[in-house]
Amino acid sequence: MDYTRGGWTLNMQHETLETLSHKQLTQQLRDLGVRPGGILLVHCSFSRVRPIERGPVGLIEALQATLGPAGTLVMPSMTDDDDHPFDPQRTPCVHMGVVANTYWQMPNVLRSDSPHAFSAQGPEAARITAPHPVDVPHGLDSPVGRVYERDGQVLLLGVGHDANTTIHLAESLAGVRYRRKKHILVLKAGRLTRLAYAEIDHCCQNFNLVDEWLEAKGLQRRGRVGHAEARLARSRDIVNVVTERLQRNETIFLHPLGVDEECDEARASLVSPSLPGGCVLD
Ligand SMILES: [Zn+2]
């Protein structure tokens, strides 16, 4: 057996990591700058955070304890499946990770009734998860838009800005013209209906540029939460910094042609828009 192979070494490192307590986690979150009483939108890869006491639930409890009773915790909760209607009581949210998929199922957590759902608990939860349009998933009238309007913070735990949905809000506010074709199935008057729409989207890898933009202005804090690298910034700072860049260069996030299909489709839509704004039922 070759003990120098990456998998074995990584597993051994994982075995020896200290299991962090609730108290250690809340201290890390306070040190990073999470605001008690504020609104916090969290994107998380739990495999980077662990091991911690009580697993994903332990992390959620530490986030809630740091925010306190006046704070509101928000997480993505969208469906992974565009081919079945969304049911907020049942539809899983696996791609956003185990913490997001645990959170919406916990007591007193509200989940918006949308394939682009977010879940929230706290005094602002009902407003943040109120109905939002399906065809503009991350505009001003959406959970991320409401976190922005209420001056919430965005916490990235073990993920980079390529997982940061608030950047799509900035694209929407900046008025970028690129789109990709999407569809979902919805129940309309009791009948399954396919809803086609055009969404501001691409591969999102270049969202990682936002680290540099925020840090050049001292608008992002980095630290550790659990064992993960953590980034914290105000939603408004992310939106302001990104909007300013997009107004100078609309395609700054899109790869050059031929790198990946998603950015190619977004670029092509600038030349010949395939769908008008809004949506069509077919
Ligand atoms: Zn790309």
- SSE ordering: HHEHHEHEEHHEHEEHEEHHE
Overall pLDDT level: 92
Number of strands: 10
Low-confidence stretches at least 5 residues in length (pLDDT < 50)? 1-11, 276-282
**Fraction of residues in helix:** 25-40%
The overall number of domains is 1
The share of residues in extended strands comes to: 15-25%
The main sheet comes to: 7 strands, mixed
- Which class of secondary structure composition applies to the elements? alpha+beta
Instruction: Give the neighbour order of strands across the main sheet.
Output: 3-4-2-1-5-9-8
Structural topology:
Blueprint: H1 6-16, H2 22-32, E1 39-44, H3 46-49, H4 55-67, E2 72-76, H5 98-103, E3 110-111, E4 118-121, H6 125-128, H7 143-149, E5 153-157, H8 166-174, E6 180-188, E7 191-199, H9 210-216, E8 221-225, E9 228-234, H10 235-248, H11 261-271, E10 279-281
Parallel strand pairs: 1-2, 1-5
Antiparallel strand pairs: 2-4, 3-4, 5-9, 6-7, 7-10, 8-9
Helix pairs in contact: 2-4, 8-10
Bound molecules: zinc ion.
Structural overview:
With 282 residues, the protein is of the alpha+beta class. It has one domain (18-80, 92-178, 204-255). The chain is 34% helix and 20% strand. It has a 7-stranded mixed sheet with strand order 3-4-2-1-5-9-8, with helices on both faces. Helix 8 (166-174) crosses helix 10.
